[in-house]
Design brief:
Number of helices of chain A: 7
Strand content of chain B: 15-25%
Radius of gyration of chain B: 33 Å
Structural class of chain A: alpha/beta
Oligomer: heterodimer
Largest sheet of chain B: 6 strands, mixed
Number of helices of chain B: 17
CATH superfamily of chain A: P-loop containing nucleotide triphosphate hydrolases
Structural class of chain B: alpha+beta
Number of domains of chain B: 4
Largest interface: A-B, 30 and 29 residues
CATH architecture of chain A: 3-Layer(aba) Sandwich
Strand order of the largest sheet of chain B: 12-7-6-13-5-14
CATH topology of chain A: Rossmann fold
Number of strands of chain A: 10
Bound molecules: adenosine-5'-diphosphate, magnesium ion
């Protein structure tokens, strides 16, 4: 079943008198349960594409259907409500609230949705953060902080989990850990799309999309996922 | 270097502008006060010179040759007196003593009202008190302006320390960095001072348009003001060099964990509470500016109330222009009535008996005497100002309100029935003070005098009254019109001055509050973006800010309470005792301004929230503050 459908997506930035085409006429279909890595050189438009898909940014033109809703048409609180329900997002720099504990950071989105967050215990154990749940983010390592951010994104059981270079700020050992976590959640049925410029990590995904100058130049199924 | 400063300004536009604004506002606070004070002072001096003359001292002497003293600016002869104006008014007493050692002085008369305006009279203390009050006010203003700049700069410091660290990484030496900072500071203080100076002049010119105040530049004051602000800004701006190290150490050691005693069901209130608890710099700044606002505004409000009360109590302005007294005969009554009908816009003739009586007034003067005016008429009334009541045959100062019962008063063995009434007949208003009591009765054996009070626009009335005095049985008349005009003008100017200072203090401290709330929101853009990306709705933000502004105002309230209590105990109550006023307290204005500050913070936060609402989540998240 297709949960994301992107049609003729187009996004430009003005930089002085120059016009930069960050996403150039992109079309994409993503099915439930996919595990996708978006790769490409720096400045190729990976982040912009991901932001638009996650409803954090608006395209100049085109359509983004998530679960049959065109999120390009949503605005303000409607968009926030939609994102709250269906989308989880992980930033490169964790972006945790420094004055909340790990537990509070993770549970934060769940407060709104009023969903039963009984999944918390399972989640915190799988993230291997149980013993750190009362720590503040600044007292954690980068890898731990990023795992906390994953917890925050997953607590609401989102339809899709987006991650923009989630390992960009981590050493290879911690980076591997994060991607393995992704793999684990994907196995449980979670749809995941992440951006990376590390080809080794990208190969762990089931599908690899290569972007260059705002265009998708390659879209391959990765049958032989390595561990 | 200038290029670097300019580039820097462009990069940190918002914080720099707010910082500049704080310098402008602080200097405006000082300059406008100086202008207002100089203007009012000059006005009073002019009035005194008009009525008393511009000499400093009047000496009765036979000797001539005063012209030879170089310290004397002007000299005038008037009958046997020589009227001297010195070059330096401050030296009046010293120079006069010196003069009188050299020549014989029979009689020395200082121009006390004039000298007192410069705070050097040895006799007239009331204006000296006024001067002391001004000094207190001025020091409050100076402290406030320090608070304003320091407060804002503390916020700017966050950006500044980061900036300096970047410069350091770029290979700038400590000397270069200090040089840069000094130059930058000089640049902004000169700009801020200039803008503040020009704005102050403009505002003062607008203000003085409504009044007869002149524009006086007191160079001495102005020089001090300039120097004060410059030193202030420099001291404050050099702080990062002293503080940079400490901040780093602090950061390393601080434990960010905040203990939560309460359980929060609502995540919005939890975040609001934590935000308030961690008291980030910009939060502290907002709280401090609120404290400045609360303390300053309440103090100045009380200051205004005092001025009003003192003027009300001690300066009696007659409601009439002329008072004419005659013996109580039928002819005189007809004559006065005719005269009044022809020459007045409003008048009243009373049959009066003047008595001296002993009174017994609790808390006031234990036993003393008062002038009692018994006047004929149906409206019985009592002293309005002091709230005197008559009880049996004694007179008491009432703490309670007027009693409506009939009161019997015995005077000269005559039992007079009275009914208390809060109304004073025309002409007697200014007679009602400590030592004068007025009552009206129907039945009394001896109304020996007639008193006519009248308001009049007629020209040459004094001549007519002189003729009347010559030809008839009129005892005397009092011309109150001239003095009334002068007093009225002076009162107006003083009230205006005090009121303008209050308005000024209010406006400036509120703009400081506005700018710090602005900064405190701006510094939280990223946090807002994060919350939004997680699923905060506009309503959640609104609720959060409502709770936060409540917390902040409450904290400011709690923090200013001791200061207010202190002011109340050591100033308000003492002054109340000295000038015999009761019931004036700082608490009412304090509560009023607390309410105003709560509203202000709420409104500003709402406006700023609106501007953030329209910014894209991503832009907010990518801000580098949190
Ligand atoms: N806010 C922005 N303003 C202007 N240009 C931008 C902005 N964000 C991204 N760009 C430009 O768009 C292009 C794509 O950026 P991005 O999506 O961040 O690439 P990637 O994530 O692949 O490195 C780049 O050339 C970048 O300079
Ligand atoms: Mg990127």
């Amino acid at each position: 079943m297709e949960i994301i459908k992107v049609k003729n997506l187009y996004k430009t930035y003005k930089q002085g008198s120059d016009k930069i085409i960050a996403v150039n006429n992109t079309n994409l279909k993503i099915k439930q349960g996919e595990f996708i890595a978006i790769v490409g050189p720096s400045g190729s438009g990976k982040s912009t594409l991901l932001h638009i898909l996650a409803g954090l940014d608006m395209p100049d033109s085109g359509e983004v259907y998530i679960n049959k809703t065109n999120i390009v048409n949503l605005k303000g609180d409607d968009l926030t409500l939609f994102r709250r329900k269906h989308i989880g997002f992980i930033f490169q720099f964790y972006n945790l609230l420094p004055f909340l504990t790990v537990k509070e950071n993770i549970l934060l989105p769940a407060f709104f949705t009023n969903k039963n967050y009984s999944s918390y215990n399972k989640l915190i154990n799988s993230l291997n953060l149980k013993d750190k749940e009362n720590y503040l983010p600044n007292d954690l390592s980068g890898g731990q902080q990023q795992r906390c951010a994953i917890g925050r994104a997953l607590i609401t059981n989102p339809l899709v989990l987006f991650a923009d270079e989630p390992t960009g700020n981590l050493d290879s050992h911690n980076a591997k850990k994060i991607i393995n976590l992704f793999k684990y959640y994907n196995k449980l049925g979670q749809t995941i799309i992440f951006v990376t410029h590390d080809n080794y990590l990208a190969k762990k995904a089931k599908r690899i999309i290569t972007v260059k100058d705002g265009k998708i130049v390659k879209d391959i199924k990765n049958v032989k996922t390595n561990f | 270097m200038l290029k670097l400063i300019f580039n820097n300004f462009k990069q940190n536009k918002k914080t720099t502008i707010v910082f500049l604004l704080s310098i402008v506002l602080a200097s405006m606070l000082i300059f406008i006060f100086v202008f207002l004070f100089s203007g009012v002072h000059q006005y009073l001096v002019d009035e005194v010179i008009k009525s008393k003359g511009d000499y400093h001292v009047k000496i009765k002497t036979d000797l001539k040759g005063y012209e030879n003293f170089t310290v004397i600016k002007k000299i005038k002869w008037q009958n046997e007196y020589v009227l001297i104006t010195y070059n330096d008014i401050d030296l009046t007493y010293k120079l006069t003593n010196k003069l009188c050692q050299k020549t014989k002085c029979h009689d020395i008369k200082y121009n006390d009202p004039y000298l007192s305006l410069y705070g050097i009279s040895k006799n007239n203390n009331l204006l000296k008190t006024f001067k002391n009050l001004i000094i207190v006010v001025l020091s409050l203003i100076l402290i406030a302006s320090f608070g304003i700049i320091y407060n804002i700069y503390k916020i700017v410091l966050v950006t500044k320390t980061k900036q300096l660290a970047i410069f350091q990484n770029l290979g700038m030496s400590l000397k270069d960095r200090r040089h840069f900072l000094l130059l930058e500071t000089l640049f902004f203080s000169v700009i801020g001072l200039t803008i503040g100076f020009i704005l102050s002049i403009l505002i003062y010119l607008v203000i003085s348009n409504f009044n007869s105040l002149k524009f006086i530049i007191n160079m001495k004051f102005l020089f001090y003001a300039f120097i004060f602000i410059l030193i202030l800004v420099f001291l404050i701006c050099l702080l990062p060099f002293f503080k940079a190290k400490k901040i780093n150490e602090k950061r390393l050691h601080s434990n960010h964990y905040i203990k939560r005693k309460k359980k929060f069901k609502n995540v919005v209130s939890l975040i609001a509470y934590l935000n308030y608890k961690r008291s980030k710099k910009q939060y502290l700044a907002l709280i401090i500016s609120l404290i400045i606002f609360l303390v300053l505004s309440s103090s100045f409000h009380v200051f205004v109330i005092y001025t009003e009360n003192i003027i009300d109590k001690y300066i009696k302005i007659p409601t009439y222009d002329f008072e004419i007294n005659a013996l109580n005969t039928k002819e005189n009554f007809d004559l006065l009535k005719k005269f009044a009908k022809q020459n007045s816009t409003k008048y009243a003739i009373y049959e009066v008996s003047n008595k001296k009586i002993n009174i017994d007034i609790e808390d006031f003067f234990v036993k003393g005497s008062a002038n009692l005016y018994i006047i004929k008429g149906n409206n019985f009334f009592i002293n309005k100002r002091e709230e005197v009541v008559f009880k049996d045959d004694k007179i008491y100062l009432a703490k309670q309100k007027y009693s409506k019962d009939n009161i019997v008063l015995t005077i000269d063995n005559q039992k007079l029935k009275l009914k208390a009434q809060n109304k004073v007949p025309f002409g007697f208003e200014n007679i009602l003070n400590k030592n004068n009591l007025v009552i009206g009765v129907n039945d009394y054996p001896e109304f020996s005098n007639l008193t006519l009070f009248m308001k009049s626009n007629t020209k040459n009335l004094v001549k007519k009254l002189d003729n009347l005095l010559k030809d008839n049985n009129i005892l005397y008349y009092v011309d109150a019109s001239k003095g009334k005009k002068i007093i009225n003008n002076i009162i107006m100017v003083i009230k205006f001055f005090v009121f303008m200072v209050l308005v000024l203090v209010f406006l400036i401290s509120i703009s400081i509050t506005i700018s710090s709330s602005y900064l405190s929101i701006m510094y939280r853009q990223k946090e807002f973006g994060l919350l939004k990306s997680i699923g905060f709705l506009n309503k959640n933000f609104k609720d959060m800010l409502v709770i936060e502004s409540l917390y902040i105002t409450f904290k400011a309230f709690i923090c200013s309470l001791p200061i207010i209590l202190f002011i109340n105990m050591f100033f308000v109550e003492t002054i109340n005792e000295i000038i015999d006023l009761k019931g004036i307290s700082i608490f009412k204005p304090f509560l009023l301004y607390t309410l105003i500050s709560l509203l202000t913070v709420r409104i500003i936060m709402n406006i700023l929230l609106g501007s953030i609402k329209n910014t894209k989540t991503l832009t907010l998240v990518n801000c580098d503050n949190i």
